[in-house]
Amino acid sequence: xxxLVESGGGLVKPGGSLRLSCAASGFTFSDYYMSWIRQAPGxxxxxxxxxxxxxxxxxxxxxxKGRFTISRDNAKNSLYLQMNSLRAEDTAVxxxxxxxxxxxxxxxxxxxxxxVSS
Amino acid sequence: xxxxxxxxxxxxxxxxERATLSCRASQSVSSNLAWYxxxxxxxxxxxxxxxxxxxxxxxxxxxxxxxxxxxxLTISSLQSEDFAVYYxxxxxxxxxxxxxxxxxxxxxx
Lengths: 118, 109
Hints:
Chain A is mainly β. Chain A has strands spanning 3-7, 10-12, 18-25, 33-39, 45-51, 58-60, 68-73, 78-83, 92-99, 105-108, 112-116. In chain A, the strands form two sheets. In chain A, strands 2, 4, 5, 6, 9, 10 and 11 form a seven-stranded mixed beta sheet that branches. In chain A, strands 1-3-8-7 form a four-stranded antiparallel beta sheet, with no helix packed on it.
């Protein structure tokens, strides 16, 4: 069965950095586009970033452009999100999600909490 | 940016009754609209894509309709496990700039 397991969240000070990982299993990872989506405490969902199956095509939400970097390692079945210059408003649960053929998010991980606070 | 607006914010319905949730897009998204269900402490689950196609394993009591800017999710006979928050999401843009509605909380009346 499809499994996505995020890790790497934690408490970081404003201006700091954090790298999230997402380990994928149960499907051919290299065949799928992937995304990161976040949810601030008690709030709705916000799409963050998107990467093509090969890693050659990448997009970001305006709110994270220039600060976050998405990447993947198909040999390791892993997705990453490097987050720099973190702000309080980046505090959220970060989910990795598989992008299906019609561009919806058909499988999600359980999420990892990132807290940006001094 | 395409803004998605859901209504109502909270909907109180009794088990066994029908629930109707609405989602409006600020500009046409054709049929590129999905619905997700999220229970407390859990990740969202895809229910509907293409405005009206149920995802794998989703019960037939969930149905979606609409196109352009107006969409509806209907749950025909509410079960206890259906009480959750529901989000709509558009995926019409290219390059992708996916946006979600703010959610409708479906609660037990």
